[in-house]
Amino acid sequence: MPEAAKGIVLRVEKTSIHDGEGLRTVLFLKGCPLRCLWCSTPESQSLSPEKAFVRDKCVMCGRCALACPRGAISEGAGERMLTDKAKCVMCFECVKKCPSGAMISYGEEFTSEEAVAEISKDEIFYFHSGGGVTISGGEPLEQAEFVKEILIDCGERGIHRAIETSFFAPWSKIETLLPHLDLLYVDIKSINAARHALVAGARNERILDNIRLAANSPFPFDMVIRAPIIPGVNDDDRELAEAGRFAGGLGKVETLELLAYHRLGTETYRSLDLEYPLRETPVPDEEYMKAKARILADSSGKRILINGLPFDA
Ligand code: SF4
Ligand code: SF4
After folding, report:
1. Is residue 82 within 6 Å of ligand 1 at its C-beta?
2. Per-residue pLDDT at 76
3. What is the CATH number of the domain that holds 282?
4. pTM (2 decimals)?
5. Quick one: 236 and 102 in the same domain?
6. Quick one: DSSP state of residue 35?
7. Least confident range of 78-87, 105-114, 204-213
């Protein structure tokens, strides 16, 4: 029997009511080739497991520094433990010895069988709510073989399967997953290639080509296009209308969803000792989002959701 594929899982969230119909288990994977300025899960960007420090939980006992075989941890100013990233080899001895949960790790290796076993624990809820599994990230296509095995196994168990992806990947990876999907969420972060490069770290031509190809595929999955709205960053009205016209021509797509910018990842940036680039960007209010939804509705002719809720033009 071939060995099960392995993947690096960031976390598993149970009974989510977002990211698809009904109650869902969301499997967040590590690894993403893009660098969106508004990313709310910076801990998902690296494919490898990594270590973080939560200042508010630290009781300054010093056990992490004693446990570190590389002498990478020292006490810094302002009652915080500092890690010298150049010395750290991510052995996670400090995480194991920390008594208060201040030293934490992001990412754990799973086999596809272990992931499916975890997903299957909630089968009864999927059955009663019309839910299932959603594989998210990071970017699931960075671990396409692992994802494919999970999707196939879940399909055999009758579990509804969705993925959330940027589609910034070779088509050869994407097409192997399409026969095993019930629902596909894809982002258009900006329809303008130069702006996309500026705000997400790469141009968008490959993404738009992949969206066109997926929308023309013969497999019977539903497809939802999502557009994050980051005020003043990627939400120019004319470009949004252009994105609407693009999505309006995609046969498989019945629904477009706007996702409002939020700052929920701020603490995680701090724990990883990373700069949060959009500190000053305002969070859009309801009226702001409705105005953007109107533009998208008029230009696409499609059904519009705002953060999962129907927008009534
Ligand atoms: S992960 Fe290992 S090497 Fe890195 S700081 Fe912790 S104990 Fe030291
Ligand atoms: S072991 Fe945990 S609580 Fe103790 S100093 Fe290190 S991070 Fe803080």
Report:
1. no
2. 85
3. 3.20.20.70
4. 0.91
5. no
6. -
7. 78-87
